[in-house]
Amino acid sequence: MKNEKSVIINISNLNYIIMGLMIRLLRLNRFPILKQLQIEEALYRTPDSGNWIIINNGTPEPIVIVGATGKADKLVNLEEVESRGIQTMKRFSGGGTVVADENTLFTSILLEFETLKQLFPSLSTSASTSTSNSTSSSSSSINVGNIYPKDIMNWSANSFYKHVFQEQLDFTLQENDYAFGKQKFGGNAQSFSKHKFLHHTSFLYDFKDDHMMACLKQPDKIPEYRQNRDHLSFLCKLKDRYQSKDHIINNLLKTINNLPTSPIINEVTLEEAEQFLLNPHPKSNQLFDYNLKNWKDIINEYNPK
Question: What are the angstrom distances between the C-alpha of 186 and each of 39, 91, 100, 157?
Fold first, then answer.
């Protein structure tokens, strides 16, 4: 009987793999976010790269990250950032601006739409009632099989991260941000293609108040719920609710392992993910050149070992 059960489980697993219900999990620790975003762009732009969830416990050096359409001089106090020896980068996805460091927890969800529909069949039905009046950035009019960017934002909060932060009764999605009540602790960015989407988040476990106030300008366009508050009044720190980042990471892993329909979770190595960098693909991540006062392509490209 033991052997029969083993055979059934293996066949079931094989069916999941054939159906595409396998998710690769990449866990990183203090890995440079610039390199992570280069890997993510390769995964996102490579056809048939599969489904991925990436967790990175902090980036070793402080860095300012601006969204794809962001203007550095409008969002960042460039002279101050340069004087502190902090790099400014533009990521390939949209979203806002953040000062990240070793106390930022990064998560990325890259899923094919067909996989998402198999995991959450009700999403297709509920999303079909959505309209293009979405407020989730310039991509709000994108509609892939009746799934809009705002639908993904709502799904991420109500079907995924609400389980990660289940101890916090005031966890909520405020426009495009994760918040406790009206205080933001997680900022999101998304990218959409014909067959897949990328949803990645910067969670503020802790941050240096001085960095946040001195390095970032008050943006011209702010979410309504911010009510023109300064950075410190608007943001909160996860460390005030959790004893360690490990607690949150463990909640993340439990949520991943308890996804509906029990997909295969295949934990992979950094080296396996790096291989996708070898595939030809557009490369949009950039660094700000403080001398030229402009964005520049990354010359010393990140190459896998």
Answer: 21, 17, 12, 11
Q: Residue 223 has which token pair?
A: 């979410």
Query: What is the model's pLDDT at position 121?
Result: 86
Mean pLDDT of the 195-218 span: 97
Q: What is the DSSP code string of 202-214?
A: EEES---HHHHHH
| CA neighbor of 231 nearest in space, from 242, 216, 251 | 216
Contact residues for 83 (Cβ-Cβ < 8 A; gap 6+): none
Q: For 170-177, what is the mean pLDDT? A: 97
d(CA 17, CA 32): 31
pLDDT for 98 equals: 97
What's the average model confidence in pLDDT over 161-168?
98
Q: What share of the chain is helix, strand, coil (3-state, %, to 5)?
A: 35, 25, 35
Here the tokens at position 101 are: 């460091």
* CA–CA gap between residue 178 and residue 150 (Å, rounded): 14
Structure tokens at 251: 């909640």
Phi, psi of 61, deg, nearest 5:
-120, 145
CA dihedral sign of residues 232, 230, 220, 177? positive
pLDDT of residue 125: 55
Contact 246, 240 (CB under 8 A): no
The gap from C-alpha 201 to its chain's centroid, in whole angstroms, comes to 3
Average pLDDT over the chain, rounded to an integer: 88
